[in-house]
Amino acid sequence: MGAGEGEDIVPQGDTAPSDCSPTGFTGPAAARPDDAAALRRELEAARHRHAAEIAELRRQILEARKLAGLGELLGTTTHEFNNALTTILNYARMGLRHRDQPTRDKALERILSAGTRAAKITASVLGMSRQGTSRMEPVNLQVLIEDVLVLLDREMMKYRVQVEREFAPVPKVLANPGQIQQVLLNLMVNARQAMQGGGRLILRLSHDAASGLVDLMVRDTGSGMTPEVMRRIFEPRFSTKAGPDETGKGGTGLGLTACKEIVEAHRGRIRVESGVGRGTAITIRLPLQPAAQLPAA
What we know:
Blueprint: H1 33-97, H2 101-129, E1 137-139, H3 141-158, E2 161-167, E3 173-175, H4 177-194, E4 199-208, E5 213-220, H5 227-232, H6 255-265, E6 269-275, E7 279-287
Parallel strand pairs: 2-4
Antiparallel strand pairs: 1-3, 4-5, 5-7, 6-7
């Protein structure tokens, strides 16, 4: 901690020797008002430097957490993209082996479906890769949720998790799409990991007109959390997991910390409700797109 934090400064008043000044000079000149003003300016400048350094360190830590999240995303994307390519190759071979038109039509339909899915995966990843930018824009949360589900669809089926959508019509919010996608990806993966024997993942959108916020809830029917765990879930490095699961996700203790910081940077709020054996519901509340930015009718 430097001078801006109050350390390494000689106390003023009765505790300071009469022949000393905070500047380290002795003699009558030490008490001149000009010297005191100069010292105050130096301390204020030091305080601003330290504040800027702390802000920069926080930014770097947040970026590191985002990169860790993108690393997990890369593993998910590679697996999903490989599934799409495998489907395309298998049905292409089937179409070449069989000359009859019905079989070829079926093969082409499956190839088109898998190719469309691959394109959606690519679009979703490109959206998340832009999260390093700070640009805010009007965002349709329902579209954003579906983009994330494209990446997790096979994973949810593998672990017998049923996805339920409860989407009320909501206005657009002002957000960074890539950053909110990263939050959603983290919350959905956490929910899936909490349901080791399968369960229901409930995604809900609602609009609170009184507060001017849109609520996005991610609820699971998993094991839930104790009050002690709930008090610590946003602490950096805290995790109830021994390490990444077989898909390579989780266990770093960085996910929810980064989620909270991203939501708060959007002037939003995050709320957690949980109980042992009752599952967990995490709601993020985001502000609407300002009226001044709405397109003209």
